Every structure is written in structure tokens, then in C-alpha cells.
Amino acid sequence: MDIVCVEDNEDFTFFLSKALKNQENIEYGIYGLAADALMALSNMEVSLPKMILLDIDLPDKDGFSFLRELRDSNVLKHIPVVMLSSSENPRDIQKACQLGANAYVTKPGGFSQIKVLVQDICDFWLRHHRNPAA
Amino acid sequence: MSQNNMIKEAIKNCEDEKIHLIGSIQSHGYLLAVSKEDYCIRYVSENVKLLFSGVLLGKRIDVIDQQIDTSVTGSTLIELLNTQLRTENFDGYNPYHITLNGVPYNLITHISSDFIVLEFEPDSSETKGLEINSFLGDVLIHLNIANKSLRDILATTTIKLKELLGMDRVMIYQFDDDWSGEVVAEAKESHLETFLGLHFPATDIPRQARVLYVKNKTRHIANVFSEPVNILSDQNITLDQSFCQLRSVSPVHIQYLKNMGVSASFSISLICHGKLWGLVSCHNYSSKFIDYKTRKASEIISSYLSNMIELKTEKKLSSKRAENEQIVDTLDKQIREDWNLRTGLSGHQVNLLSIGKAQGAALCMQEEITTVGDTPQPKDILRIVEAFYESDINEDIFHTSSLAKIFPFAEELKELASGMMIIVISRELKECIIWFKPEQLESVSWAGKPDKVISQGDEGHYSLSPRTSFEKWENTVTSTSQNWRPYEIEAATLLKDKISAYLKLKANEMRRLNYKLTQAYEELNTFSYTLSHDLKTPLNNIHSYLELYVEEEEIDLEDSFYLNKALANTKLMQNMIKEVMNYAQTTQGEVEFKKVNIYDIIENIISQLTKDSNDCFIDNQLAKDTYVSGNSVMLFQIFLNLIENAVKYQNKNADCFVKIYNKQYEDKIEFYIEDNGVGIESQSIEHIFKLFKRANKDSSIKGSGVGLSIVKKLVSKHNGTLEVTSEVGNGSIFKVTFNK
Q1: Which residues cross the membrane (chain A) (predicted)?
Q2: B540/A89 CB distance under 8 A
Q3: What is the ipTM of this complex?
Q4: Residue of B nearest to A110 (CA)
């Protein structure tokens, strides 16, 4: 799997998957609950995703706790995490950075921008970025 | 020496006369003083040789004891003194009846520091004892008729005392605040001219005489024409004669009585609440001796009278007091109900004038004057207030019945404001309440023109001679109001306390409201942030769906008017939400003040703004060391928005030019951002600082209408001010002022 998305807003999930489908040869999974996402990740130990797209507002736990658990895990700590949130609050951005997020992106206001963003992310994190060996 | 100073010295000399150490007695009696320790005779009046034989000074009292017939009372002089000393009771044995050479005498004793003073007076009243007792009973019953007015009681007393004393004239004399006095009751022989209603100046009864009147309540002068008899002594200190019955009289006073034609006088103090209220003053036009028992009886009557006066004035005062307390309570209630000092004190039927007898009142608060009743013009009131706070009067409650005496300029206000009572609410803010009393033209009848006659003695001292004429002399008192009554002053004091309590309450309430307001403001800020955040997501979704629809249905937007408008509006709304969040965010939080270099900030902004386009010349004219105390991020935002605006609204017909300069003052610093842009229409100027208001309707210039709101908010967070002057077509000048 290439990208794991943790996102609970159904509409945004819809746009995200549409945008991801436009990308060629990308495998992705979208999870509405942090718990589901963690479960899936622990089952993927053999082939970890190349990156995670993570929202802050989640129904079961917030994105920050998710991120903390990820970074505390020996297996998962190297996976790049890009925060994708509607919050522009500098405190949220700073917190994400402190907890070890690799990037912070605010949700765009329209589908065309979402497409551009997904394109950029895939280009950078899947095609240019080199992950340390797990 | 000026006339005035001469008078002052003369009065002082008169007041300095030590009349209790006069060293002589009146000639109708005899005086001896023995040491308390050994009964040795230390003082004798020169005339005792008429009573006793042999040298007395230095001898023990035994030397006269043998000559005295004490058979009436039974014990010897020594036995008497022993008992008196042992029981510490002298008055209880007075008078002691003795016979000398077959003549009856009253012996009156008292203690004067280390000495026992023995005074011998003729006893003319062997059988009068019983009569006096029944007379006293009769008088007291007469006085004790409850519903009699004070005036009636005083009149009755003079009649009864005249009957008892057999004097030609008995007057009751009441002191005023300034120790001048007025005859308020009189009983006299019918052929005599009345003194009733006449005023006597304060100098008629000088201070030290008043002091003695409080100590020793009776004073008898039997014959003004008799020569005083010196007291001889082997001691080097003068005998203190404060309590001496026979004490001789100051020559000035003798002259005074002689000028009035009086030959004998007798006076009794009336003391109310521990203070000399007045005197019972009795005159006889031929010499007259009043014996001890009669004097005692009249003293009893007078002390009973004092009590009656106390009771009557107390009663009058307490009913006035109760009435005023109720008024003050009502005022207090009104203030609290209105939650306003001004209306509470002046806007109801019960107002500042309900207290006492003032004709006008003014409330000076927050540089505004509210008046009730007849008062001077506000500008004159202001003048009085200013003068009061600049004077050295430190009392928080002050009253005068003659304002012009304190502030001469008030002479012209005398018709309405001769009397003034002021209570201070705040010295710092010059806030107060003032009551005014009008001038009361009062004609005062003086007993003789109260001019002092000053004569220069041999040693060059100025002394006061009593006036020689006591003929009624009329004098009109001007620039003076009725006196302020104790209950008026008390009510004002009470009101002052109530106002202080109210102001304290109000201050607390303000603090509470202020706190709530701050909280509400913070909440609103948080709320607008949260709300816009929550609105953002669905709006973004709508926008995305629209875009998707357009994309997937392959619609040409040029052809779809509705979709085009829908997309444009969602975009507009997205922007607005973004700006609201921006506003909420930038204006949140307290400013931590630090020294910030504004020159650097402007340079920074210029490089940022000219990076993308270079179509405007921005001139930073600040000195390199221009500092303001504030938050650097916020200050950056302030200048960025202002300069950005200046560049944004440039005039298409001129080369864009923006300059930033400042003016320094002692306590503030002003920054000017001046452009040659399109300018702002005057009717729009007041709106430009409001959220989402844009003066410029040119849709080609992008803007949200939030920038200046943020600037305004940030400037006020720095306790600064933001002003703008503008001319359409010629540009605008924004002025930002910060305190230093």
C-alpha cells in the first residue's frame, strides 16, 4: 500500500479518493477512525505504506495522539506523516511539528485545488522522497 | 502700629490678664489660707486684722480658733478642717456658721492646691434657710411644666431669680458661635430700660473669664466702688483664686460695670453639654451683697435650668435629626434605585434641598454641575469649587455663614450664596456637593457701639477700655447667612458616608462588569473563530462538489451563468471566513510590550511589497533608531496593512508614491503613512474601520474589508489611536499615535 489516509469527513473522503484515483498505480486506504487505521497498519508490517495523510479532528481520538502513538512505535515511526487539516491555528501547526509530523497542509477550498495538492504530495513523497529502511 | 494691630494687642492683653491670680479680695469679706499639711496660716487678706487680733501669718490656725464662737455648730475650726480633709468634702459643710465678736458669719472653705482657703462672709440670713428651701421647691415645680417652650422657661427663671435675689435686673444671656452674646430673657424693675434682644460683643466676656465661668459657676460683685483688699503672704507664689468666692474684680470689668451704671452684679453660668451656653447675669444699681445660701439656691435653679435647656435643645435637635436621617435614607434609596448619583440626589421630590434650610444646592460631578433651588450660575459655582480645592481648607466637610470672608470674590454672589456648606466627594476629581444659604440682612442691636476704646498705658502697652455708652446701637450685618445648624451638618456628614458607600459599590460593580465584558469579548472572539472554522468545512465541500459537477458533466462555465455565480459566491464566502478567522486570530491575546524598531519593520515591509511588483515608490523617512514599545508581530501587521492599502489604492493617473514619516513629542510619537492614491470620500471615512466595509467600490482592487479593522484593533491594543485624513483624487494620510 502506498498511502494510508485517516479522514472522517465523508465528503472530503470522497474528494480525496477521487483525486487519488486520478493518480496512476497508487494503492491507498482511507480510514474514518484512528483505531481502524492503527489496526490496519499493524497488519501491514511486511509492507508498510510509504506515507500517511492524517487529519486532526477524528471521532475516536485526535490526530495528535495518533501521531504520538505512531512515533512511539518501533515499527511505524519512520513512516512520513503529512497532516491534512482545516485548522490554520499556529498552535496546531506547531504541535504537529513537535510531535514529528513531516509536513502540515491545510485542506484546500475546492476540488481542483485538492487534485493539485494530491498530485504534489504523491510526486514528492512517493516519487522523490527516500525513506530510511525500516 | 495700625488700628487693627492695636486692637489685637489690646484684646490679647485683656485676655492675658490672669484674673485668677489677682491677689486681692472684695472688701465685704475676709480671707485666710492655711497649709493643708500643718494648718499654718500662709495667706491673709489685709483686712483680717479687723476680725482677729495678733499676727496671723506663719501661726497655726489655733490662733484664731480661740477667738471664734462655733457654738452654733459645735465643733472647733480644727475639727471642721480635719473632717473636711478626711472626707474630702468641703462643699458639704459650706457654709459653716460662726460668730465673731457676737456677729454671725458664714465660713466658706475650699481647697486651692496645697492650701485650704477660708473665707468669712457676713451672714444676713439666719432664718432664711427654710424660706429658701420652699422657694426652691416652688421654682422647680414651675420650671418642670413639660410643654413650656424654652423661651417661657427662661423668662420664668428670670422672674423667679429676681424675686429670690432682689436684684434690679436679671437677664439670661446666650452665647453665639463667636462668643458674642444676646440677651434672651429678662426680668427688671419697670423703670429700667430693657436689654432684651441686645447683643454684646465677645470681648465683653474675655476668654479667661469664660474659662473661670465653667470652673466656678457663680460670681458675685457686691460693690464696684469698694476698694479691693490685698492678700498678704509669706509664700512666694500667688494664691490661685479660681474658686474663691470673694475674688476681687479686674479693673477693666469694674470700669465696664461702672460705665453701665451697675453697682453690684451676680452671675451664674449655664453649662450645656459641658460647654458654656450662657449666663444668668444680674445687675443692681446700688451696692448689694447676696449671702452664700441665696447664691447657692440660685445656682441650684440655674443648674436645673441648664438641664432643661439641654433637654429642650436635645429634643429639638433629635427630632430634627430623626427627620434628616430619614431624608438621607430616602436620598440613599433613590441613588441606589436610580443607580445614579445625579438623579438620585436631584431628580426626585426629596432632593438635596430637603436637608436643612439651604435655598440652593449643587452637585459637581464629572465636570458637570447639577443645581437644585436658588444657586449662583454654574460658572460661579465652578469658581467656588476651584477656590475651595486650591485653598488650605483640608476638611472634607466645611461650612461657613460668610463665604465672602473666605473667598472675597464671592461678595458679588452674596444674595444667593452668603452661606456655604460643602462635602467633598473626591478631592482629586474636584467633585463635591455644595449647599447655599442666601444673605440674611439682619439688624443687630448692640448694647453700645461695640467699638473698642484703646488706651496706651504708662509702659506703652495697649489696653482695652470698656465702652462708655451702652445705648442701643443698630448695626446691619451683610454678606452673612443664617448659621449652619448642627443637624444640617450632621445630615451632610451622613449623606457623605452614604455616597461613599454607593461609590464603592458602583466601583465594584464597574469592575465586575468590566471583567464580564472582557470575558464576553474573549468568548466572542473564540466563538467567531470556532464558528468560521466549522462553517469552512461544509463550504469547502460545496465548492468541491460544484467543481466536480462542472468537471464531470463537462460543462463550459462560460455558458452556465448560475453555476458561475454559485462558484463565485462560495469563493467570496470562503474568503470572508478566512478573514474573520484572521481577524479573530491576530487580535487575540494580550500585548507584551517590548522595544520595537519601526524603521526596521518598514524596511522589511518595503522589501516584501516591492518583491512582486515594483510599481510604487515607498519612502521610509524614519530615523534608524525610531522605537515604539509594543508587540513586534502586531506592529508589523499594523504598518503592513496600512502601507499595503496605500499601494493597493493607487491613483492610475499618477506615479504611486507612499511616504512614512513621524513626529516625536514628549509623551507620544505619531507615525504618518501618506499616499497620493485615490483617496476616500468623506462620507465613507467613518466606515472604513468597520469589519467588511470597503470604501472603494472598484471591484478590480481586491480586498476583504478586514485589513483596517485589524489595524484599528491592534493599534488600540497598544493604547494608541488611528486617524485618517483624505481627499478624493489626492490621497490619504493615516496617522498612528502611540504613547511613549
Answers
A1: none
A2: no
A3: 0.86
A4: B544
